Amino acid sequence: MRHGKKVNHLGRKTAHRKAMLANMACSLIEHKRINTTVAKAKALKQFIEPLITKSKAENNQTAEKGTHNRRIVFRNLRDKYAVAELFSEVSEKVGERPGGYTRIIKLGTRLGDNADMAMIELVDFNELYNAGKPKKKSTRRSRRGGGASKT
Known about the structure:
The chain is of the alpha+beta class. Helix content is 48%, strand content 13%.
């Protein structure tokens, strides 16, 4: 029975798994999309989404809380360039999004060992999906017809 066992160990010891997820997260932040197996993509999604939320929360807080969030993210990623890009570029793009920063798209099976493959990407950085959706209008219209009057 597997009662209460929520972590997918991915066939690795703890240190190897944490290092692999940190490396994959850094690659995802740098390249905005990576190809991997479905199981690793699901584990990476659980790993990186709280980190993106912490980077997004820095903009709404004081300097010392922002530094604290930056240190927490650095403890998990262990790459200062990825942390810098996450807190600058990525957090600006996902500022309005309440969650769900990544998307997993299944790609079929790998030729060598028939493993299920997937592409994991940051949602706001895919121009193909975001091009079809119109931007939300910033102005509101009233029902009274106070716009253009006929004279």
